Sequence to fold (181 residues):
Amino acid sequence: MGNLTSHSKFLSLILRHQPDAAGITLDVQGWADVPSLLRGMQAAGHPVDMAMLEEIVRTDNKQRYSFNETHTHIRANQGHSVQVDLGLVPTAPPEILWHGTATRFLESIMAQGLLPGSRQFVHLSKDADTAKTVGQRHGKPVILTVRAGDMHRAGFRFYQSENGVWLTENVPPAYLTVCEK
Ligand code: HQG
Fold:
């Protein structure tokens, strides 16, 4: 793992799950103060300066982070387990969305539906390829299709994060189909 990747993983931990790990707090909208963050990262063995932070944000393959306009604050675009209000606006989803998971979770998912677990939302992908990559993080991947349009018409709310990930609170089993291809 390159240095920047290691720093980026630590940054994800701080901005999504454990701001404590850098001795900082996030505001209600999930923003971290950049100078405090850089000091905290440095103290935790991740010596990142402003130029490196700018590079991490600019080059991130999933565009995981956003600065505010003046770059005094930074936050993660999705994936939080800490309670934050990103100000996302409920949005009509496409008819079909995708969720990649591991085969060992299937039985439980088809019984309980998709649950957010430790995160604030269930994360859904726009296409099967992305879903497969997400699923591979957990083991042998399996892809589910989600009848998002039907869910939306039934009153479920959907949001799209700044970096294009679809979010919803839970997906009942009736809206899920295992994708066989
Ligand atoms: C599974 C990454 C059993 C769920 C990705 C998943 C994404 C259940 C796992 C983002 C279940 C949770 C999120 C149930 C759900 N029974 N298992 N009822 N309901 N699960 O990591 O969606 O690279 O919290 O299928 O790209 O994998 O970190 O969620 O396998 O966008 O930026 O429980 O994280 O982005 O795993 O990934 P996760 P996820 P980053």
Summary: Residues 62, 64, 79, 101-102, 105, 108-109, 112, 114-115, 117, 119, 123, 134, 138, 165 surround HQG (CB under 6 Å). Residues 3-17 form the longest helix (15 residues). Helices lie at 3-17, 34-43, 50-59, 106-112, 128-136, 148-153. The longest strand covers residues 96-102.
